[in-house]
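To fix ideas, we reproduce below one chain and its tokenised fold.
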Amino acid sequence: MLFDLDGTLADTAPDMAQALNLLLKEKDYQPLPFDTIRPWVSHGGLALVRLGFGEERGDVKLENLRQRFLEIYAENLCRETRLFPGIPQLLAILSKNGFNWGVVTNKPGYLTEPLVAQLTIQPPPACIVSGDTTTNRKPHPEPMLLACNQAGSDPHECLYVGDAERDIHAGKQAGMKTLVALFGYITDSEDPETWGADGMIRAPMEVFDWLKQHA
């Protein structure tokens, strides 16, 4: 079992939204409502600064803002972040039934590894593949294949759960089954039904229900 991190395994939106609003305040911009920020969290820091500051600032200025956003976020990494309700129970029952699990995320390793450590997840992951672990990031299948190798599984034995279209594309290209986490960070303009996943879930424990039906 492999999971995306932001919006699938952990609800990181409160801390990421706070970091964006601290940056907006620092630059004399008005903060944004949490409900406006939340759907964009899975799209990363650049998408968030574009949401806050607009496209007109240009690539160099946006990149500078992204770097500052990441600095602020790194200082406030796990204040309000929690595992989604049902994730601890899902991981426990997966372990009881002989499944290991891991993380494949586009979040950079210097943020991913301390965040996972601070969440003190049990049982611990068999693998963690971050956005800078491999040459290519999702939607490329390379990080998915590395995770399989580290966890000792073949791709056709793996199920990947994510809340973004690139998650589903990466899993499919790697030869895995895929599920969309509808409880994650999905914008109103996105249509998960068109992503080609093998299923969609509205709560974490539905992963195990899906496994029982399709294993």
